Amino acid sequence: xxxxxxxxxxxxxxxxxxxxxxxxxxxxxxxxxxxxxxxxxxxxxxxxxxxxxxxxxxxxxxxxxxxxxxxxxxxxxxxxxxxxxxxxxxxxxxxxxxxxxxxxxxxxxxxxxxxxxxxxxxxxxxxxxxxxxxxxxxxxxxxxxxxxxxxxxxxxxxxxxxxxxxxxxxxxxxxxxxxxxxxxxxxxxxxxxxxxxxxxxxxxxxxxxxxxxxxxxxxxxxxxxxxxxxxxxxxxxxxxxxxxxxxxxxxxxxxxxxxxxxxxxxxxxxxxxxxxxxxxxxxxxxxxxxxxxxxxxxxxxxxxxxxxxxxxxxxxxxxxxxxxxxxxxxxxxxxxxxxxxxxxxxxxxxxxxxxxxxxxxxxxxxxxxxxxxxxxxxxxxxxxxx
Length: 386
Description:
This protein is an alpha+beta fold. It folds into three domains: 6-116, no CATH class; 153-220, Orthogonal Bundle (Helix Hairpins); 231-385, 2-Layer Sandwich (Heat Shock Protein 90), CATH 3.30.565. It is 61% helix and 11% strand. The strands form two sheets. Strands 2-4-5-7-6 form a five-stranded mixed beta sheet, covered by helices on one side. Strands 1-3 form a two-stranded antiparallel sheet. Strand 4 (306-312) and strand 5 form a beta hairpin. Helix 2 runs parallel beside helix 3, helix 6 packs parallel to helix 7 (283-299) and helix 7 (283-299) packs antiparallel against helix 8.
């Protein structure tokens, strides 16, 4: 029986039970019906005080009747038992077979597979649980596929980033090496140490800033929206949790050093903020993003022009007067080490990582943003949508 499938097993079990019940019932009828018939017959005669002169063997008559009816009754009962067993077994096995067929399709990851069993019993509950389990499995597989694509894209981006970083580092390192070598050999004008030592120091400082930004950016490449790390916390591998802050107070603190830099370069710095504006966000990540945007705004604003910081509803806006960048070129500004033609001068053009870091941080928080040219006055406008 262990090797039989569910349908014949259920059928034989049910049929056996029914046959045992029917046979037992017929045996009992065969044994007790004649006696019960005699008792009833005697009781009727006593009650009516009827004297019958002819002796009739009542028990024999009943036995004969039972013997004639018993085979027919037994045959009908057996046929009925077979039919009932078939119907009962099919009713039990059919939904299980549907679940089994659906499970086979699920094994092949057929996304349309489902257990179509609509019942309020345990089998219906089983079908529902199988459907839920398969739905969760498909969601997990889809998530893993997306994660695999994301990791592949991150690896590609990291490889591109490292190639660009090595290229960017090669130029200043080569220039520094050539300058120092000429100074050591005492070649021509390089004998003037008072002039070229400060230049070498500036080159080293620029290299230091570039390496710091490269290291920071390489860590930001590993950030997920639920795992935001940066600066020293990035290097220590710790995570930053969102906190509620008063945005005007935070912006006053962030803008102060850039206000001083702007004043030193004869640039007006306008700060127009509400008295209070509470926001909940990862403070360090947001501060770094705002600082990078402010640094870009001050760096690319000429003397006599203005940098403005203000709130527009729930948006933080940073505008600076400058030569507007063409809209077609703006997406490339968020690529690592990209600089527009007018900022190729390394004295003021930066390393091309500022807006790339901003994009990484704001995407991770997440905060949507826009960076568009404005016409009156001509310049650029960076908007944080809080």
